[in-house]
Amino acid sequence: MTLIELSELTRHFVNGSDCVAALHGIDLEVAEGTFLGVMGPSGSGKSTLLSLLGGLSQPTTGTVRIDGIDIYRLPAERLADFRREYLGFVFQSHNLISYLTALENVMLPLAVCRMKPAEKRRRAAEVLERVGLKDRMLHLPSQLSGGEQERVAIARALVNRPPLLLADEPTGSLDSATSRQIMELFCELHRDGQTIVMVTHNRENLEWFDRTVFLRDGRIVEEISHRDEPTAV
Ligand code: ADP
Ligand code: ADP
């Protein structure tokens, strides 16, 4: 099944009298269960593409369909619900709240859910265990290593069980050994069926992806399939 469908997607920015085309007629279909890499030099449009996928921006022209939903046609409050239900975000600066424990940080996205507090804790604990932090749940971010903080951020992104996980340079600030461990974690999530779109400029990450699209000047200039995409079930 197709989870993401981008059609003639364009995004312009106006800077005074200059108009920058950050994205230029992007067409892309991504099957459910794919681990997609988005690579390209700085300024090629990767962040713009990810924010459009995340419902955080507005296309100048074209459409973003996720699970068949034309997301920028949704009224603002429905778009907010959609983002909560469908998307998990992992950023390079993981924005953990410094005075909350790992467990409390992971529970944050559940704040608006009608779920008993004990159930929220159970869910958050379960996903922390999933990312290998069973023994670190009550630690503050400052008591955790960079790799562990990244795991907390990944757990927080997954706690709502979103069909789509979006990651922007999630290993950008990690050393190469830690980076590898984090990529292995993403890979395990992917093996369990998680659809992931990851922006990176680290070529070493390429080996992990099912498929990689390369951007340059706002266009897809190359695409590599590393293995067969998951077929429809
Ligand atoms: P990347 O993530 O690959 O570094 P970006 O998507 O951040 O690329 O940027 C693509 C192009 O769009 C760049 O030329 C950048 O300067 C421009 N751009 C991105 N965001 C904005 C913005 N908010 N306002 C003006 N120009 C922007
Ligand atoms: P990345 O590190 O992912 O490439 P950037 O440093 O390109 O991200 O951009 C960081 C943020 O700044 C993004 O939200 C982007 O939209 C914005 N931005 C990028 N270029 C410009 C620009 N020329 N003018 C205004 N905002 C920009």
TrEMBL record:
SMART domains: AAA (SM00382)
Recorded GO MF terms: ATP binding; ATP hydrolysis activity; transmembrane transporter activity
Pfam name, any one: ABC_tran
Species annotation: Geothermobacter ehrlichii
Family of this protein: Belongs to the ABC transporter superfamily. Macrolide exporter (TC 3.A.1.122) family.
Domain ABC transporter: residue ranges: 4-233
Keywords tagged on the record: ATP-binding, Nucleotide-binding, Transport
This protein's name: Putative ABC transport system ATP-binding protein
Cellular component, GO annotation: membrane protein complex; plasma membrane
InterPro entries the record matches: AAA+_ATPase, ABC_transporter-like_ATP-bd, ABC_transpr_LolD-like, MacB-like_ATP-bd, P-loop_NTPase
